[in-house]
Every structure is written in structure tokens, then in C-alpha cells.
């Protein structure tokens, strides 16, 4: 491992010390001031975005985020007198969150490149990386880059591994496929969809030690250095505090201790049985299930109100109200749910300048999307009631609203109920899509688990079983309520 270069903060401190010593010999005073917490960040709380699946730099152990990056940023925060709130979003989502000012900084094993320096300001390097190639354990045919001709390899999207693979693909005649996280890449290779993976060497070493089914077949290629990033021209005091804290950790030896903790042959899990996995995963999965049910309940309640409101608009005698309802339904039925989630969590803050909580963004996305479908359910239910029922009500002297409330709706509700139940189930399943914006629901928690232990199939089987049980219980409850109130 290469020695980490001296930080700019460290050089600046040495320069100041020398000048003060020449001026009056106050070296001791200056040294004491250099090691004190920064007054600019003291007492502040900063939101820091990170990746979800980049062990040993960030991963979950016993449900808690840990790793080199996590230890570094927390120790630096403690030494400089500020507090950090970590949001595990995924690499791409973390960068988008930073650009939309949802987070103040990102630490995610992020390589410092010329292109990124146009957008972000980076700290001093805190790790010198490198890229290696790995293949499935049973693969004896791929031992060098020359064996990749005509094959497909995989790399993490936006990573140093992808950059390196693209730089040599024409020379050796292979195709590069980019995926979102290391665990998915390794599974892709083991499944035979790709013959090799290019990834950062410490990440590969950690995965191989955890029995991810791969083996490295090349020497480490020199890569870029990792840095902590903030938006260009923003939070300079946070960047300066990070540099100062990093310099202190390097000088005290605590930095090397952190590296040794995670890079010196990390121990594999002691209990590798399925029930051991189930027991270890249960706390995190139950936490995710709770957030899934919370988001579903809030979204359904809001969507129900929207569906009834806009459903009445669609059958209104007013062209304006019908136009409003039609526009709303067209927008949210005509765009993908993922695009809506990205817009509300990343796009809206950029337009308004106001950050939005991930739960609020998730509920907003699900409720508006489900509300559009419920609008159509309400419209279809009302229009399914024989028109003669409305005419009969009006002929008895009842107004439009009274006719709808007393005559049409009681009949329409019976027609709409099965569709409402189906929409409830769809909304619960749609919460899994919110994992892409870092909402820690059930699917997200499953991703966190297999990112650390690489037991993807078994973890997803447990997650799927939980969804199956909850959805069937919800369906049974809904059907009982339907029979009770609509018999």
C-alpha cells in the first residue's frame, strides 16, 4: 500500500509553525492551536452521503454502518468538534444528493478525477486505490487481459474499475457492462453473464475473504486516490476541517490503525447456516419492514383522498375540474415511478432550494402515483352505476351532490373495493423502488445485508418471503373488511 501523501492542511500548518518560530518562537502556542477543534464547524451538524455496498469502506455490521470511510469521517468529526449524520444512499444517488444539496458532503471511496474536480471540491487524498480483475473460482480459462477477447466484463458504474476497463477494452477486444454495486457484479460473474469483474483491490480482497465465489487473477493496477467531496465552492469550512482532522489522524497513527482494522484479513462470518443468516438479519429486516408499512399506510391514506377528490372531478359537470383531473392522471400514469422518485428527492430541491426528507419524498411519490390510479378506479366505479340511478335521484328533487352521496356512491363503493385492495397491494410492493433514493425500507435493508456477506440468493429469498407473508395478510384483512361492509 502506498503511503498517503501529506495533506495540504499539514503543509500549511508546518509553514505557519515555521514562520511563527522565526518571528517570535511561539511554536508551542501554534501547535496547540493547530490541534484544537475548528471554530468554524464546532457544534455544527453535517449530512454526509455514502455508498451502500462498498465493503470494507462502508457496509453494515449488526445493522450499523461501519467501514474505513465511516470510521474516518466520525473520528474526524469528533476531533474537529462537529457532528455527522450519515445517509447510506448508494454511489450514484449520493452524488445526485450532493448536487441537489440534500447532503453536505460525500465519502464513498470516491476517486479524485479531473472530470469530478470540475463539479466537486475534494479533500486531501485519504487512500491510494488500485484496480484488480477477478473471475469465478472455477474459471481456469481467464488468467490475463488477453483472454478476454470477445467476452463481457462487469464494473461498478462510475468507479475507477469501470474507467480502467474502458481504457483497455479496445486493446483486448472485450465489452464492459456497468452495474450499480459490488455484490451485484460478483453475482453476475458467478452466474456466467460476465466472465470477469474489475473492482478496487481492497473491495475485491474483502469479498474474496467473505467467500464471494471469486478469485483475483491480475496484479493491482495503479489507480486514483480517494477523497471526501463537497459541492464546488460550498462548505469550504467542512473541507478544511476534514483535511485538518485527517492530518491529525495520520500524525497520531490512528489513521493506520483504521486501515489495519479492515484490510488485514477481515474475519469471515462464524455462522454460515441459513438460520444463522436469518437470525443475524432479523433486526435490520424488521426495521425495514416497519418503514415499508409506515410509508404504505401514509401513501394509501393520501392517495385515497386524492383518488376520491379527482375521481369526482373526472365526472364533474365542470370542464375545468375535468381538465385538472385529466392532467393529473396523465402525468402520474404516464411517467415511471422511479423517475417521479428521483424528481421529488433530487430534482425538486434543486428547483426550490429546499431539501426534502427521504420519507417525505417517498410518501409524496407513492401517494401521487397511487392517487392517479385510484382516480381512475373512482371514475370507473361511478360510471359503472346505471345512469338511471342518477336520473331517479334527480327526479326525486335531490341535488347533484346529494344524489352522488346517497344513491350513486354506495353502489359504486362495492364495485371499486376489489380494485382498491389491488392498489393497496401494488403500493406496498412499490415501496421497494424507493431503495434507489436511500429510503431504508425492506428491500434496501436486504441490499445492505448481502452487500456485506455476499449471500445474495439467500438474503433475497428471506426478503421475498417477508413480502409474501405481509401482502397475503393485508389481502386477507382487506377481503374480510370488504365482506363485512359490502355484504
Characterise the protein shown here.
This protein is an alpha/beta fold and 487 residues long. It is 60% helix and 12% strand. The protein has 18 helices and 13 strands. The chain has helices spanning 8-23, 27-35, 68-80, 91-99, 114-117, 160-172, 182-190, 201-209, 236-252, 254-263, 274-314, 319-333, 337-352, 358-384, 387-395, 400-430, 442-453, 456-485, and strands spanning 45-50, 59-61, 64-66, 83-88, 105-106, 120-122, 127-136, 152-156, 175-179, 196-200, 214-216, 221-226, 229-231. The strands form 4 sheets. Strands 7, 8, 9, 10, 11 and 12 form a 6-stranded mixed sheet that branches. A 3-stranded parallel sheet has the order 4-1-5. A two-stranded antiparallel sheet has the order 2-3. Helix 6 links the parallel strand 8 and strand 9. Helix 1 packs antiparallel against helix 2, helix 3 packs across helix 9 (236-252) and helix 11 packs across helix 14. The radius of gyration is 28 Å and the shape is elongated. Residues 1-35 have low confidence and may be disordered.
